[in-house]
Amino acid sequence: RAAQQGHRRAQVRVGMLAAARGDVESAAHWYREAAEAGSRNGAFNLGLLLAREGSEREAALWWSRAAAA
After folding, report:
1. How many domains does the chain fold into?
2. What are 33-66's pLDDT values in tens digits?
3. CA distance 63 to 52
4. Among 16, 21, 60, 63, whose Cα sits 20 to 30 Å from the Cα of 39?
């Protein structure tokens, strides 16, 4: 519920739960929501997820955002 209301920390946590279940699409969604709202952890975790899925170039962009946050 907090994630749906835009709370970045909750969005990252929901993303982590989704990733642990193997739900890559949902994890990416919640990490991206958090990252676009300025969450360093959201951007970093999205980068990790993308790198694992083979999207290294996009992962690097999110890691750059994480470093700048």
Report:
1. 1
2. 999 999 999 999 999 999 999 999 999 999 999 9
3. 13
4. 21
Percent of the chain with pLDDT over 70: 100
Buried b (16+ CB within 10 A) or exposed e, 43-67: bbbbbbbbbeeeeeeebeebbebbe
Q: Residue 22, Cβ neighbours under 10 Å: how many? A: 8
User: Which residues have a Cβ under 8 Å from the Cβ of 51 and sit 6 or more positions away?
Assistant: 59
Count other Cβ atoms within 10 Å, centred on residue 26.
Answer: 15
For residue 13, what is the domain's CATH number? 1.25.40.10
